[in-house]
Amino acid sequence: MCGITGWLYSPRSEPSDSVLAAMSDSIRHRGPDDTGDFRDREAGVALAHRRLSIIDLTDASHQPMLDDERRIALAYNGELYNFRALRAELVGLGHAFRSDGDTEVVLRSYIEWGVAAFDRFAGMFAIAIWDGMTQTLHLARDAMGMKPLYFVEHKTGVAFASEVKVFQALPDHKMSLNPHSVQQYLEFGYCFDTDNTMLNGVRKVPPGHRLEVRGGRIVRHAAFFEPPAPSRGDTRGEAERVDELATLLDQVVAEHLIADVPVGLLLSGGLDSSLVAALAARHGDLTTVCMGFDGSDIDERAHARVVAQHVGSRHVDVSISADDVKAEVMQGAWVFDDLFADWGTMTTRLLYRRCREMGLKVVLVGEGADELFGGYDIFNVPQPLSLWRQFRLYQNYSGRRYGRLFGEFHGIMRDYLGQGDGDAFHAVRLFESRRQMPNQYVMKVDKASMAESVEARAPFLDRRVAELAYRTPRDWLLRNGENKFLLRAVGRKNGLLPAQISGRSKFGAPLAASWMDDDPAFRSFARDLMFRTGSATREIGLHSAMTKYFDQGRSGDAFPRPLSIFRNLAWRLLLLELWSQHYLTPATGGRG
Question: Which of 103, 268, 390, 491 is close enough to 502 for a disulfide, judged by CB 3.0 to 4.6 Å?
Fold first, then answer.
């Protein structure tokens, strides 16, 4: 797990060493253990790498990694969970390895199979490969989008990075808001475009896609992964389906535990993380960590302790106060990078910090199960998904704010319905897993963990698990009055989980947004920031709405006006104001 950045530029406009050093330094938190760079001045290519050493802690896995002839250079961020199987296959094909890690497997896979190698990788990754033989830079992002990969088509070439803040170091590159992305953010809490970000000119490689860059410009944009449609002709019964999922999850969790540093697990006491904990405990001693909020009803620690006792883990409770989180909100908005409004980024950053203080450099998490296996109420969408039902779905996603993006949302859903032969459940699953998850939920995991130099691994987002989930029809996931039926059945199989956990409903509440109403000091802080001269709130034209909220005590506007829940809007605007201080003014990005 690391951070990568680089630039394929015109040799006539070669950047200074100080510029490239600044690009690398801006993501040092992603890889504090080692740093390296590769330059081919004649070709106009530069790669930089920041390493968080997890597997093969020796210099043999130093990056950028070069082939024997020094014609191919690799900068790689992530983990390849099936690297041992690929390594054995490559050895059989005549490759000799000098290291024990997965980085060399990525390099030699490209040497052997070219870009077809990306389709063989089960892992999370952002990859940059410079092929000197074809003078091509390849950029690729994993199938489920767990690792971010951003790029800028600068006037002198194409720059890329693991985080948006890197581009502040580019000469003559001004950071400015993308108005359409801001509109998506204010309605949905994130930018749901597959390739745009909150900033003009800064784009992202979509999940499961790769780019080819030659001569300082992008010449090809291709997908190497597309979610499969549900299998309608599969007549297998419950026992066979449960066995298949249980076997696969056991294998995937075992591979996610591979590391040369201590590994822990974030345990909430809910079904998803508890299932991962129970499977992980089969493979050795396990440390589980649960977070609770002081003075709040949002506390799952009692449930987590039940699971920990059941699986025999060494369990640690972590208490976090509202003051801790508010301090993070006010000081750490740089973490959000490509902005999204999930307040859990702050709480989980605190949790990852505690993990690192305990000596845990890797943690497993339960993200992805709800989006892939139908864990939210929104999956109970009726069939067929008529235009009116799509509008009601849009209202749900946009926080009951009747905005202007329904036409765009309808176009996305129409495409997703086509991919599943009109299946409404699968269309919602695609929106959840291809739009919301990679642009918000998984980015929360990546930004919060990497800000504290901790690697977070999500077994449910392993490509093999995702493919199985996509192929599974609705009837096997919403069944017998339960959601995530097959996952619950795995938990019940041979008493893997306690009965009260395998049948437990999802739990959670928007704690942070309530501070706008419940905490006078926080409310005053937010108001002053939004009402200051030159604020984004004023520039966007929402000062009047926020005046109604802060000064008149209005909770929202009635239909058909576009705003209905001012508290949610205020939270998003607060984060936008704090984030803007880091990303929209020169030389202000940095650690909070």
Answer: 491
CA of 424: how far to CAs of 86, 111, 408, in Å?
37, 42, 17
DSSP state, residue 479: B
The token pair at 272 is: 């998803």
Distance separating alpha carbons of residues 441 and 209, to the nearest angstrom: 19
**Residue 360 in 3-state DSSP?**
coil
Burial label for 226, CB within 10 Å (0-12, 13-18, 19+), is exposed
Q: How far apart are CA 212 and CA 205, in angstroms?
A: 11
| Rg of the Cα atoms in the chain | 23
Phi/psi for 512 (5° steps) reads -65, -45
3-state secondary structure of 521: helix
Contact 522, 530 (CB under 8 A): no
* Three-class secondary structure of residue 45 per DSSP: strand
Q: pTM for this one?
A: 0.95
Omega before residue 206 within 30° of 0, cis:
no
Tens of pLDDT, residue by residue, the chain (592 residues) = 689 999 888 887 888 889 999 999 999 999 999 999 999 999 999 999 999 999 999 999 999 999 999 999 999 999 999 999 999 999 999 999 999 999 999 999 999 999 999 999 999 999 999 999 999 999 999 999 999 999 999 888 999 999 999 999 998 889 999 999 999 999 999 999 999 999 999 999 999 999 999 999 999 999 999 999 999 889 999 999 999 999 999 999 999 999 999 999 999 999 999 999 999 999 999 999 999 887 666 678 899 999 999 999 999 999 988 788 888 887 788 898 999 998 888 889 999 999 999 999 999 999 999 999 999 999 999 999 999 999 999 988 886 656 789 999 999 999 999 999 999 999 999 999 999 999 999 999 999 999 999 999 999 999 999 999 999 999 999 999 999 999 999 999 999 999 999 988 776 555 566 777 888 888 999 999 999 999 999 999 999 999 999 999 988 887 666 667 888 889 999 999 999 999 985 443 343 3
Q: Three-class SS of residue 264?
A: strand
- What is the torsional sign of CA 152, 154, 158, 163? negative
> At which residue do the structure tokens 């002198």 appear?
156
CB-facing half-sphere around the CA of 508: CA atoms within 13 A: 12
Long-range contacts of 297-302 (CB under 8 A, 24+ apart): 297/509, 298/507, 298/508, 298/509, 298/511, 300/268, 300/269, 300/270, 300/507, 301/269, 302/269
| 151 strand-pairing partners | 160, 203
